[in-house]
Specification:
Order of helices and strands of chain A: HHHHHHHHH
Number of strands of chain A: 0
Helix content of chain A: over 70%
Low-confidence stretches of chain B: 1-16
Oligomer: heterodimer
CATH superfamily of chain A: MetI-like
Number of strands of chain B: 10
CATH architecture of chain B: 3-Layer(aba) Sandwich
Structural class of chain B: alpha/beta
Radius of gyration of chain A: 20 Å
Largest interface: A-B, 21 and 33 residues
Low-confidence stretches of chain A: none
Largest sheet of chain B: 6 strands, mixed
Strand content of chain A: under 5%
Distance between the termini of chain B: 36 Å
CATH topology of chain A: MetI-like fold
Number of helices of chain B: 10
Mean pLDDT of chain A: 92
Number of helices of chain A: 9
Distance between the termini of chain A: 52 Å
Chain lengths: 215, 261
Amino acid sequence: MNVLLDNLDLFREGFVGTVSLTAGSAALAVVLGLIIAGFRVSPVPPLRLFGTVWVTLLRNTPLTLLFLVAFFVVPQVLFPGIDSYLLAVVALGMYTSSYIAEALRSGINTVPLGQAEAARSIGMTFTQTLRIVVLPQATRTALPPLSSFLIALTKNSAIAGAFNNVDLFNIQKVLSNEGYNILVIFIWITIGYLIVTFSISALFRTLERRLEVAR
Amino acid sequence: MSEVSVAKDAGSPEPRTDTLVSLESVNKHFGALHVLQDIDLTVARGEVVVVIGPSGSGKSTLCRTVNRLETIDSGHITVDGKPLPQEGKELAKLRSDVGMVFQSFNLFAHKTVLENVTLGQIKVRRTDKQAAEEKARALLDRVGVGSQADKYPAQLSGGQQQRVAIARALAMDPKVMLFDEPTSALDPEMINEVLEVMQQLARDGMTMVVVTHEMGFARSAANRVVFMADGRIVEEAAPDQFFSNPRSDRAKDFLSKILHH
C-alpha cells in the first residue's frame, strides 16, 4: 500500500505535469475561444468563415489524430526540436478552443439583441460592444458548459502523457513497469485527477455565484 | 429656450433651411414586404417630428434607419449633412451623435444605472471617469432618477428604466434623439413620467424624431406630425391641423379609431 509514499516525488512530478498541461492549454483555449467566438458573430464574412472552419475542423478531428500530427508532422515540417510540452499545450488548446468558442457563442445568443443595439447606438464599435456589453452577460450563461469543457480538457491531457510528457498518466506507466499493484496505482492516479477536476468545479461555482450577484 | 414653442405657436411647419436629418426616396424590404416605400423626410435642427400610424406601417423601421440599425435597399440618408457611412468606425462615430431610445429600454443589464450613463462617455467619448460621473448624476437628476444611481436596471420600474435610457442617450450630447415607441412597453401610470421628460427636452430645443402612439404628446410637443401607413408617408402636417382636419381618408380612419374611446 505504499505505492504513494515510496514514489512521492514521482507522483508529485506527475501531478504538477497534469496541472501545468491543463493550465497552459486552458489559458490558450480560453483566449483562442474568445477570439473565435468573436469571429463567429462578426459582421465581417471572411472572419465568420474562418471561425466556422476553425470550429468544424478542430471539433471534428479526433484528439489523438491531432496529437499525431502535432508530434510527428509539425516538428518534421515546421519546428524541428520543439519542446513536447509546448506541442501538447498547442494541440490541447486548439482542440478545446473550438468547444469553448461554441459555448461562448451559445451564451452570446442568449443576450437580447437590444443590448447590442443599445451599445452600437451610443457609438460603440463591434469589438467594444462584444467586449463591454455582450460577452460579460454571455459568460454567465456559458459558465456551466465551460467548466465541463475544462474538466474534459484535464482528462484529455492524459493523451499528452502518452506523447512524451510527464503527467499522472505517464507515471502510471512507469509504476506499472516497476511491478506495483495496478489497481492501487490507478486509485492514486484517479485521486490526482479528481483533485484537479474538483478544483475546476469549485472555481466555476464561485464564478457563477459572483456573476449572479451582479444584476 | 422656447424657439420650438414659438415655431409651434406660429402653427405651420414652415420648411426651415437648417436640415439635420434627411431621407430621400428611401426604400426597404423585409423579404417580400415593402416596409418603406419612397420615403422622403427632412427634420430641421430643433424640430420635433412625431411619427404616428397603425402597427406595421413602417414607422419603427423608419426611425431605426436613421442611425443605420436597419440598412436600406435604396435611397439616401444624411445626418447633419453627412451621408450614413458603412458599418465601421465612421458609423460608430455618427451613432454617438444620434441618441436612441428603445421601446424595451435596453439598459445594460450587468451595469448599474450610473455605469449605464457613464459607459458611452468613457468608452466612446474618452471622457475621464470623474467628469463622466458628474455629468451622469446631473442627467439622472434631470430625468428624476438621481436616487437610483447605484441600482441595477432590473431593480427599477419601467418608467424609471426608460428615463435612465433617455439620460444614457443624452450623455453623448446627441445632435438628434430618436424615440422608438418609448412608452409602448410601460404601464399606464408610468407613461406620463417619461412623456414629461420628453416634453422638457422638446422645450429645451432638442431635435427629436418620436415614433409613438401618444396622441397627447404629438399634439402638445410636435412641430410636425408625420402619418405613415403601409410603408408610405401618407400625410405630414402641423399637429393642430392634422388632428382637427386630416386631409387623407387613411388618417381620418386611423384617428376615428383611436380618438373615440
